[in-house]
């Protein structure tokens, strides 16, 4: 299986560097242009895509639809996968790092010192987020033919998890994986490996 990892187009909150994991917002004009750029790259480098998987949040669905409209994959379908949404930042949703630090300096310090053990106020822990995402992608991909080319349109945190889990790079951590908007990262997988990791 060929898995193409792509990040959704830019949003206004993205541009303002806000925490907005579970907030549902559209992509902006820059984001639309980025997705058209991505579509052109896919048209040149990928003769076929069999299915597009997407987070159910609007910014990913909208991005996937732009890809469909601007590529030569006439029969491709977009499948929304609920478990692939970004981490829920709880009460921090919609805020910038500076705003959070001003309102909750102690909690912010805890997060900075140990982000993988931190529970966002009324939100998710990193572990619950990771378990949710890997269960969702695992169960979805194991139902797709091993010979397929799959485009995954998703969020930065989700893409980092999937890349690190299925195609880790020696010496790289979660934060090191880059997914610039308007581009994609390709992973080649044997579908049978998905079940072997437990």
Automatic annotation (TrEMBL):
It is an enzyme of class 5 (isomerase). SUPFAM superfamilies: Phosphoglycerate mutase-like. PANTHER family: PHOSPHOGLYCERATE MUTASE. Keywords: Glycolysis, Isomerase. Belongs to the phosphoglycerate mutase family. BPG-dependent PGAM subfamily. This is phosphoglycerate mutase (2,3-diphosphoglycerate-dependent). InterPro entries: His_Pase_superF_clade-1 (IPR013078), His_PPase_superfam (IPR029033), PG/BPGM_mutase_AS (IPR001345), Phosphogly_mut1 (IPR005952). Gene3D superfamilies: Phosphoglycerate mutase-like. The keyword Repressor does not apply. Coiled coil: none annotated. Its EC number is 5.4.2.11.
